[in-house]
Design goal:
Length: 116
């Protein structure tokens, strides 16, 4: 089935980290290609996917390390990858990264969630 113009425009408009986005930090390799996307702030608001010219994507490596990739459309800024702690990842998941690719229990295996 052929895509509609709106679907094609939406696909082109979506900011996504390149699959080969990789960085070595502290002698550890972080790679979008081998990691699992957990959450992001990339959602269609009726005009675009970008939040103030930037999007943040939260990933977990196969060994359980967390990192973010932030893409920017601003001149003078560069896209970047930053390792973060599990607590920082949980904070992002619970607050600003509202587009969840995985449920909480899969995103943070072994983390207990208690009733309030």
């Amino acid at each position: 089935m052929a895509q509609t113009i709106t679907e094609a425009q939406t696909e082109r408009s979506t900011m996504k980290p390149p699959e080969k986005f990789t960085r070595i930090v502290g002698r550890k390799k972080y790679s979008v290609q081998t990691a699992t996307l957990i959450a992001s702030d990339a959602y269609w608001d009726g005009h675009n996917f970008e939040r103030h010219g930037r999007n943040t994507f939260l990933y977990r490596t196969p060994k359980g390390a967390y990192f973010t990739v932030t893409l920017t459309q601003w001149q003078g800024e560069q896209d970047h990858l930053s390792p973060i702690t599990q607590d920082e990842a949980i904070q992002l998941y619970e607050t600003s990264l509202t587009e969840h690719e995985l449920p909480y229990t899969e995103a943070f295996p072994g983390v207990n969630v208690e009733d309030a």
